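Most newcomers find our protein records easier to grasp once they have seen one. To make this concrete, we reproduce a full record directly below:

…
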Amino acid sequence: MERGKMAEAESLETAAEHERILREIESTDTACIGPTLRSVYDGEEHGRFMEKLETRIRNHDREIEKMCNFHYQGFVDSITELLKVRGEAQKLKNQVTDTNRKLQHEGKELVIAMEELKQCRLQQRNISATVDKLMLCLPVLEMYSKLRDQMKTKRHYPALKTLEHLEHTYLPQVSHYRFCKVMVDNIPKLREEIKDVSMSDLKDFLESIRKHSDKIGETAMKQAQQQRNLDNIVLQQPRIGSKRKSKKDTYIIFDTEIESTSPKSEQDSGILDVEDEEDDEEVPGAQDLVDFSPVYRCLHIYSVLGARETFENYYRKQRRKQARLVLQPPSNMHETLDGYRKYFNQIVGFFVVEDHILHTTQGLVNRAYIDELWEMALSKTIAALRTHSSYCSDPNLVLDLKNLIVLFADTLQVYGFPVNQLFDMLLEIRDQYSETLLKKWAGIFRNILDSDNYSPIPVTSEEVYKKVVGQFPFQDTELEKQPFPKKFPFSEFVPKVYNQIKEFIYACLKFSEDLHLSSTEVDDMIRKSTNLLLTRTLSNSLQNVIKRKNIGLTELVQIIINTTHLEKSCKYLEEFITNITNVLPETVHTTKLYGTTTFKDARHAAEEEIYTNLNQKIDQFLQLADYDWMTGDLGNKASDYLVDLIAFLRSTFAVFTHLPGKVAQTACMSACKHLATSLMQLLLEAEVRQLTLGALQQFNLDVRECEQFARSGPVPGFQEDTLQLAFIDLRQLLDLFIQWDWSTYLADYGQPNCKYLRVNPVTALTLLEKISREMKDTSRKNNMFAQFRKNERDKQKLIDTVAKQLRGLISSHHS
């Protein structure tokens, strides 16, 4: 039973499914019926489905038949109408066909014409499109052609601008063409080529600048010199400057009207050729010598290419190298002024160029970079000048060098460079200049002193007299009243030395010009240098002359007279310096001239030399003395050598007329003392072991001759017996022995008013022993005369007694 129920349930489901499929077939488009039928065939009941389908078809046929039967009459009427319409339709068809045939025949030419028109329209459209494309490409090609032309003509900055327009404006419009890709690929190469070529131009420019820096510097320094001369003329003649204006500002070296975005010109001319002919009216400016367009072009090109920093670093590095080369002085620079001038010209040219670059470019160089270079240049220049100037021994060259350094400093100061260190260094060179001047004037003074005749200057006319007075400040009313011919008291070297001192002062003043020193500083410098001239150079020259071996007393006397007059002229030298510096001597810290001291020292040296020379002459005469110490004859006149000596002294002291009184008196006293001392030494000489009273008498005659000379007053100014005191020791000694007054000597010895106060016991004992030896020898020879022997024996005993007492005085004095 259950199976029956299950079968029944399955059949119901199948029937329901078949019904659904049939409804779907009826309602679905025939194109989509396939899946439905597939579901039927996929099932197991397709037989029953076919039966059901047949049943459904029969039902529909019966419905159609019912409907047809219901509408059949209308259908027949409709068919009858259709049959009538078919005939009319056939006629219409024939007419349309005939009309179409005629139309096709008539429109065949039109179709051909339309085809031709279509082709023409197509061609026209293609041509128009081609023209449009060509219009887009032609500017690109023209720009590229222009770029190539600019590259060929080396107009690199315009080429770079063209390349920018080509890359950013024209190529993007036609970027899909193959030739544009080739251009795009070639653009970096063109940029590098422009970059390399512009850098090559810059290198050529830098090389040319290095070679021509001296010409640029020479031009700048000439312009500075012109401006200084013009300033001097304006200061001297203020009105002259208003009559004529300079054609251009002498300190505007370069043309500053340069566009910051474009080069100055399109030609890389570097250094232009300039004729060497100098024009007194106008020196060509450095803008006439230099074309900076390579720098500007290269700067703009690198800026556009985004490599400005690379360019700046390269430029600064190369210029630093050039600066080091410029600052390296030639080894023989110190030999000539041209060596220094060329050195300065190169430095000025270098910094003039850098200053121009600073003011005409935006940031290629900056003030810090310039200051750094200048500090390096300043230190190296000063070091080089110190080294090379130290080799210079010509004061004229040192003075020219100083003027050149001042011009060098003034030129650079115009461009804003600090030059105080250069002027400080000039103060150092000033000391060297003073040394070279001193050496030069040492030679001048030596020549003057060597060539002088050391005789008073004779004058035979008023004209000669005024000439000498004009050269040397000398006033003597007594000399003026004397008739011609007459003589100045001094020799020719006095006015010559005085004028040379003034020339030295002028030379010192020349160096102080343009050093921006105050009058007080100039005055102090001149006075200090003049003091060195007086105290060192002139003093040494005078000392050398005074110390010469062959100098005579006449020359020494004249030197004393000359130095006396030169000493008096020192106040006129003070006035001379005051007049040229306008600094009064009373000003605080004003240095005083040491001329008075110098000439006093020279005079004292000459005086000492006179004393020494006189003593040497006296010694020479004394060497001629030939005493017979054993003679027994009593002479009646002084020795010949001493008479000659006294005559010499009289003639010598007669020359001392113009000497200051004290000098002549001192010389006379010194000569007498030396003569007395020498005579005493001659008498007490150890080699003379014996002497007779007769020899002592002859010696006494010579001393009397000396005393007579002293009493005669060879030099005025001595008091009564002052000069005789030089021989007092000899006189008392000789009186003691000749008068044989031993009792008085021994009794009064030690008392302040004794007769033989100046006789020393040692001296008396020495001389007594010599006489004693002689008497003993004589006694032995004359022993045959007993009476004489007895007298001599008594005298010998007396001598022995006196000698014993003298020894006692000596020992007691020592104790």
In short: The first strand starts at residue 458 and ends at 459.
